[in-house]
Design goal:
Elements: E1 4-16, E2 21-23, E3 28-29, E4 33-50, E5 57-60, E6 63-64, H1 67-84, E7 89-97, H2 107-121, H3 128-135, E8 150-154, E9 163-168, E10 174-179, H4 190-200, H5 204-223, H6 227-246, H7 257-271, E11 276-280, E12 286-291, H8 295-302, E13 311-314, E14 321-322
Parallel strand pairs: 5-7
Antiparallel strand pairs: 1-4, 1-14, 2-3, 4-7, 4-8, 5-6, 8-9, 10-12, 10-13, 11-12
The chain binds the ligand O=C(O)C[C@@](O)(CF)CCOP(=O)(O)OP(=O)(O)O.
Ligand FM0 binds near residues 14, 18, 19, 33 and 281.
Length: about 325
């Protein structure tokens, strides 16, 4: 049995958002979501299981992690140990290739890479869709990083069928410009933010209904390669998600003044006839969905307000893959 493996997983940005769980134990979402996997931002993770290890050890970017962080990894690895009926402990070494200026949460690529590496190192041979149900138990958005391009996370009916479905390779002049407004650690994590929203926002039920319609419409736009429709649905869906947060108790907003600067710049570009659309997650950073061939033009307009190292152009990324030494 190969007891060591290294896997690369790319992060993803949701175009139809996941923002709320119907089951917190199994990370089952209230609605299906859909994302674009990104080429530029990824995590490389090596896992080795060894009978001589007495406990799990977790290194991130070369630094040994705290007991608290290591416990999270152990809990996640237990899913794989249980599947393999083994008690072997592991050493995990993860390197996040997320430009520091990006301040982008990399839980999606991190848990997808760890899932892929554990699967190979234990010789479990889980197929990608089954593997996505394991990645989901680390972080919901990780479900989608198993595949490349446009990926749907089908909400499913139970833990076994809440999984990733590849939709399209996005190889038709699709790109994203990321505006790293700031990389301060956010006060309210996605996990806490969505829980508060589900529990207290009067707008939340309407969001779920709208997202269920949006995902049908966005898949039709992708099938038709209708970029304008794809962008309009993306921007509206993200804004509706943020609208639910404003209705939470206490109200929640991740936006900062520079987020608005980026949004206004994108709106001005649209007025000039450049189709580009914004989406935001649980942080102030702004992601601009655009034609890859127009990304440099969009970056130039944004560079009026943001330093070059805060602006990242990325193509669509691929699904997880093994890295051989
Ligand atoms: O990615 C999206 O669909 C939208 C968000 O990024 C936020 F806008 C949610 C990400 O939530 P995640 O960090 O996966 O939560 P976990 O399951 O509690 O770990």
């Amino acid at each position: 049995m190969p007891n060591k493996a290294c896997v690369r997983a790319h992060t993803n940005i949701a175009l139809i958002k996941y923002w709320g769980k119907r089951d917190e134990t199994y990370f089952l979402p209230m609605n299906s979501s859909l994302s674009l996997t990104l080429d530029k931002l990824y995590t490389d993770t090596m896992v080795v299981f060894d009978g001589t290890f007495t406990e799990d050890a977790f290194y991130l970017n070369g630094e040994k992690q705290s007991e608290k962080e290591t416990k999270k990894i152990s809990k996640f690895l237990d899913l794989f140990r249980e599947e393999k009926k083994t008690g072997l402990r592991a050493r995990v070494e993860s390197i996040n290739h997320v430009p520091t200026a990006a301040g982008l949460a990399s839980s999606a690529s991190a848990f997808a890479a760890l899932a892929g590496a554990a699967n190979l190192a234990l010789g479990l041979d889980l197929d990608p869709q089954r593997l996505s149900t394991f990645a989901r138990r680390g972080s919901g958005s990780a479900t989608r990083s198993i595949f490349g391009g446009f990926v749907e996370w089908d909400m499913g009916t139970c833990s076994d069928d809440s999984l990733a479905v590849p939709v399209d390779d996005a190889g038709w002049d699709i790109g994203m410009v990321i505006v790293a407004v700031n990389q301060k650690a956010k006060e309210v994590s996605s996990r806490i933010g969505m829980k508060r929203t589900v529990e207290t926002s009067p707008f939340y039920p309407a969001w779920v209904e709208a997202a269920k319609k949006d995902i049908v419409d966005i898949k039709a736009a992708i099938a038709a390669k209708d970029f304008v429709r794809l962008g309009e649905i993306t921007e509206a869906n993200g804004m509706k998600m943020h609208g639910t947060m404003l209705g939470a108790e206490p109200p929640l907003s991740y936006w900062e003044p520079d987020s608005i600067v980026a949004i206004k710049t994108v709106q001005a570009l649209r007025k000039q006839g450049i189709p580009c659309y914004v989406t935001m997650d649980a942080g102030p950073n702004v992601k601009v969905l655009c034609r890859l061939s127009q990304a440099e033009t969009i970056k130039a307009a944004l560079s009026e307000h943001f330093a070059a190292d805060k602006l990242i152009i990325t193509e669509p990324g691929q699904g997880i893959r093994e890295l051989t030494e």
